[in-house]
Amino acid sequence: MAGEQARTASESQARGTADATARIRELGRAAEPYVIAQRRYFHQHPELSLQEVDTTEAIARELDAMCIPYERPLDTGLVATLAGTAPDAYREDGSPRRRLLIRADIDALAVTERTDVPFASERAGVMHACGHDCHIAMQLGALRVLAQMTDALHGEVRAVFQPSEENGQGARMMIDAGVLDGVDGAYAAHIWSEVDAGTISCEAGPRMANTDWFRVDVRGTSCHGAMPQRGADAIVAAAEIVNNLQTIVSRDLSPYEPAVVTVGELHGGTARNVIAGTAYLTGTARTYSDTAHDAMPKLIARIAQHTAAALGAEAELTDYTVAHGAVVNDEAASARCRRAIERVLGPEAVGRYRGTLSGEDFSEVLRRVPGVLAFVGTRNPALGATFAQHSCFYRVDESVLVKGAMLAAQYAVDFLAE
């Protein structure tokens, strides 16, 4: 008798899941024009980290139209709550049976757009060059779908529209504001230019890197540019430090250890005919493993000091900031995400991607609760959607946006039904 009851319950759950998937597909198709229109609006009106005032207001207007309540724990960004109406969605004490956090980041970059799209950025020097406009649109699309089928939600969806991802502060700020309180799992998606459009990658394990920032100050001895023997050139020393830092990856770490050391700035000198007495360089270090992450500041300091000394100068690692840790997808969450992709989009939509040394502060969420970050592929050479994230030419295949929205909806339904 017990076995028969379990079988009946299992069959009933399977039918409910199939029905929910069919509704997600139907509602998703209907929502596609809305999702694309939202993406274009936010693309046209980008705002930098911690300045997303208009963006937050626009998101709030959309949530108001959907009758989804929300709170504003920070000056920018907000947190919406979509309550399930399935019979078991809430316990007798009013707490949700399960609560899933879904997250979209909302800030843009200090990039001057050089695309020819009719909805290009209207703000000089600011561009959604990393796809956060798409993330907002996909999450609004997912909420639009789920708001019409709350009877399939066996718990609660907490939708976080997070500011300030690009400078690595937003996730911690939201966490400090309490967005993870009572959360059982987390989901996020990132539009990605290295994954083919129409496919989505959600493999388990490390997916994005530890992200650190550093600064090295170099001190030489200034003198007349025609008398170089009288001084120690800080610019020459800094240039050699830039070159020698690359040996960290090629000589100090195992070839099987992914890592990147990039110097993005080198400044020095005061006049064209003066040997520079000071210079500085700034950069970023990206790693996957704890071992490489822990070793990196020591290696940078050693190379800077000894390189400068060989040229009669001095160098010091004056700043080393850990922005955030690596994004590591939980095994069970990744498997759930793959099933959701197959269910709502078909097995051909399951993508493969090795991961990236780019950073993402959703890692701060995944350090605290199990979850997954999915890469929604947007690479499509036929549409010119081939440029890397942060490029002034960055563009996406907008047909993938509704797929991202449908996956988020399916993942939410599946997670809350467990």
UniProtKB/TrEMBL annotation:
InterPro entries: Amidohydrolase (IPR017439), Bact_exopeptidase_dim_dom (IPR036264), Peptidase_M20 (IPR002933), Peptidase_M20_dimer (IPR011650). The keyword Hydrolase applies. Residues 212-307 form the Peptidase M20 dimerisation domain. Mn(2+) binds at C130, H132, E166, H190, H390. GO terms for molecular function: metal ion binding; N-acetyldiaminopimelate deacetylase activity. Keywords: Hydrolase, Manganese, Metal-binding. Pfam families: M20_dimer, Peptidase_M20. GO terms for biological process: diaminopimelate biosynthetic process. Its cofactor is Mn(2+). Residues 1-20 are annotated as: Disordered. The Mn(2+) ion enhances activity. NCBIfam families: amidohydrolases. This is Amidohydrolase.
